[in-house]
Design a protein that fits this description.
78 residues, mainly alpha, 4 helices, 63% helix
Length: 78
């Protein structure tokens, strides 16, 4: 749990995987994302996964995907 009423770790992992795909990066898995968490910030994790610096568009894609996935996760939670 991340301190909210739902466990969003799966959504975060899937958001990174999808954002990297949408940004034209190499195929990655949730396990790759977990290892990349050591890089630090969202931009640093994306850069580690993309193999290049993460730009504003990459960050926008990640957060856009994350919002959709978290909303799907919380449907029905009261």
């Amino acid at each position: 749990m991340d301190g909210t009423l739902v466990d969003s770790v799966d959504a975060v992992l899937r958001a990174y995987v999808r954002a990297v795909e949408l940004s034209g990066g190499p195929r990655c898995t949730p396990a790759d994302v977990r290892r990349a968490f050591a890089a630090g910030s969202t931009a640093a994790v994306l850069a580690a996964l993309l193999g290049r610096p993460a730009g504003d568009g990459d960050l926008d894609r990640f957060y856009g995907v994350l919002v959709v996935l978290v909303q799907k996760t919380t449907i029905g939670v009261r």
